[in-house]
Amino acid sequence: MAYITLNKNHFFNNLTIIAKLTKAKDKIALVLKDNAYGHGLFEIATLAKEYGITKAVVRSNEEAKEIENLFEYILVLADTPKEASQKIRYTINDIRQIQKFAKNTKVELKVDTGMCRNGIMMDELEEAFILCAQQGLQLEAVFTHHSSADEDNRYFDLQNENFKRVKQDSQVLAKKYSFIPLRFHSFNSAALFRSNDFDEDMARVGIAAYGCLELPSSLHVKNLQPVLSVYAQRLSSRRLQKGECVGYGAAFETAVTCNVSNYDFGYGDGFLRSCSHHYITPEGIKIAGRISMDNSSFLTNKEKLLIFDDARVIAKFADTISYEILTALKEKIKREVLH
Length: 339
Ligand SMILES: *Cc1c(COP(=O)(O)O)cnc(C)c1O
Hints:
Keywords: Isomerase, Pyridoxal phosphate
Protein name: Alanine racemase
GO molecular function: alanine racemase activity; pyridoxal phosphate binding
Largest sheet: 9 strands, parallel
CATH superfamily of the largest domain: Alanine racemase
Order of helices and strands: EHEHHEHEEEEHEHEHEEEEEEEHHE
Enzyme class: isomerase
Helix content: 25-40%
Bound molecules: pyridoxal-5'-phosphate
InterPro entries: Ala_racemase (IPR000821), Ala_racemase/Decarboxylase_C (IPR009006), Ala_racemase_C (IPR011079), Ala_racemase_N (IPR001608), Ala_racemase_pyridoxalP-BS (IPR020622), PLP-binding_barrel (IPR029066)
């Protein structure tokens, strides 16, 4: 069966680089949504705990429950609580959502500073504080998310300016409505790596921890190392004459006599079909034709084939981003931690 390896040394190396930027391990909130970016929620959460990470960010209640014992603090980005929890905080994504939380729920208020996706409007700030107070919620933090931290456009600075004002206003409102101490956070991976002046209560770091952060060349990325590799096993091999065709649609025709083998990793496992025809592995082995549901063919006889070890590289072949390559990897694939 195809399998995934997780390089513990690379992961710890990345966390050490990140901790230098946040100036403390406990200011890292490791983003573990979507099966820890396809790496395996439990595997990565366990390693993170071993390293000394105390905070995690997930999408759902279900994810939070799975790792509740491993962290001191968990932020849920898009779900509502089933039962009260001391560790789990819930995100307010819309002002109309506030009245749906039960009394005493720990909440964090997301403010839209220019991404125009989730969060309350900036001019709803006081109303949100009032509603949280009326509802008896424990409002612990105000945060925002960047649309363009990894791009060279004006939005990053614009949102930073906006969030600065939100912070000032929130400090005043926190006193008025008794939500002290109030914490603040806005940095994702790209924001952390492009600025040298991190001064918030935590940074929500995903892709950098997995070693696949990409920034335009004008911005700076340090020595991050990809954590995840995918290997596939050979199912069969054949020697083909010039002019024979491989796979669905007979889409690949051999130009010379060659060895072709079929491997147990296809689009049903998360191998994006747009990698068909032109993908070349890190070892320089070419794909032959279309990717099938459970299989893909390559011009080699190798027993075990490294499919990729840097999601940024294969993402270029698929005309996408490393995030999609990683989260496409199905949960059923075995994850093995290399020590
Ligand atoms: C996914 C996510 C992050 C992490 O982003 P990276 O680019 O992977 O560091 C941070 N904050 C929020 C709100 C997110 O949804």
